[in-house]
Amino acid sequence: MRPSKALRGAAVAVVAMALAGCNSSSSSNSAGGSSGKPQAGGDLVMARADEATSLLPSVPQDNASIWIIEEIYDTLVVPSPDGKSVTPSLATSWRQSADKLSWTFDLHKDAKFTNGQPVTSADVKFSIQQNQKQDAPFSFIDSIITKIDTPNASTIVFHTQPPWAPLPADMALYANSIVPKDYAGKSAADFAKSPIGSGPFKFANWSRGSSLKIGKNPQYWRTGLPYLDSVTFTVVPDSNTRSMQLAATRFRSTSTPLSRASSHCRSSRTSPSAPLTPARLTILV
Fold it and tell me: Which of 51, 179, 211, 247 is most buried, with most CB under 10 Å away?
């Protein structure tokens, strides 16, 4: 299961609902205008109870880490909006062999990591192999893969035994996010401190126990995205403190609990149909 794509939509709702109920009426006169269309720019500060445990895709199981991993990295495919299929991401197309024992994926040729190097089949092979290691919590997902071939830089072939129709869906899992081969010359520990991905946001800084910031990736291969300039995840374990700080606009969103946060809203409110402005955007990718 790849939660963050759905969680991004949920986060959008959280931000819109929380701000519609808690922002002052002056918000309706901000940069979004009256079109109701997303506007580029802005910095989102989001408070959460838990801190990320690791930014190595194959390591964590907690949502605090997953949400960030899925903004820094890309997977080969992503779930469709209705959750019934997968759609292209780093892979532009894929097909199963006639004998049903292999899947071939063609890679997007314009995708680059934030260090400038192109995303290649060698990176994909290395990344999947990390999630195949026995100590990886989701290694069972890729255990069906018996061999990985890289006939050229933009083609990756997964051999399976037995035939495995769900393999494209497996590639949408956050644990199968693509990292540079050999962690771009770093140890896994060093890479985790300053990760490199090809996603819409790039790692900025991490103050353990306090906050983690990701910034807009100017090299992102999906033109026009992301909308936000940055997202900062602050750690506020106490739910009452998060609610009060949200009401005081110390940050722009809280992941939980929305119902409690709403009880602290001020009397001057915007309409839920107020224009979507940069301050009210979350990770729209």
Answer: 179
